[in-house]
Write a structure and sequence with these properties.
143 residues; alpha+beta; Trna Endonuclease, Chain: A, domain 1; 6-stranded mixed sheet; 34% helix; globular
């Protein structure tokens, strides 16, 4: 499913003329999935929110190397985003440091993730508009 998500996000970014490309980099573990003029994006997908309200959202494929890459890049001043698509209908965007430190960890259930997200949208188009600063669409930030 992440491959489908990646194609959607790359296409949406390229509508903003930011030369987005998919990245596969076995030489440097943790490198995000997408590079574009202005930053990087790590993509994660979950089929649904946990059934219980206070159960944290688990992202078992968000590796320690990916977390470290995102945190270090963000702290050094680079733009890197963690984008989590839930069930094909919700898209949450986190800055690299927040995503690396908190998303997928204990204590960060649905409402907590809404509270720390930089952006919440409904499509790859919404996400692309937010990360490029060219968002004309209406979006919600839930809290």
């Amino acid at each position: 499913m992440e491959q489908d998500e990646r194609q959607l996000v790359v296409a949406a970014l390229n509508k903003h003329k930011v030369h987005a490309i998919s990245v596969e980099n076995p030489a440097y573990p943790g490198t995000p999935d997408i590079a574009y003029i202005g930053g990087w994006i790590e993509l994660k997908y979950s089929r649904s929110w946990p059934a219980r309200k206070n159960t944290p959202l688990r992202l078992p494929h968000y590796t320690p190397q990916q977390r470290v890459w995102a945190i270090e890049h963000w702290i050094c001043g680079g733009a890197v985003w963690l984008v989590v698509q839930i069930g094909g209908t919700e898209w949450l965007v986190f800055d690299g440091e927040t995503g690396g430190r908190h998303v997928g960890r204990d204590g960060f259930h649905r409402q907590a993730l809404y509270n720390i997200a930089a952006f919440f949208g409904y499509s790859a188009k919404d996400v692309a508009g937010y990360v490029t600063g060219k968002n004309n669409a209406h979006f919600d930030r839930l809290s």
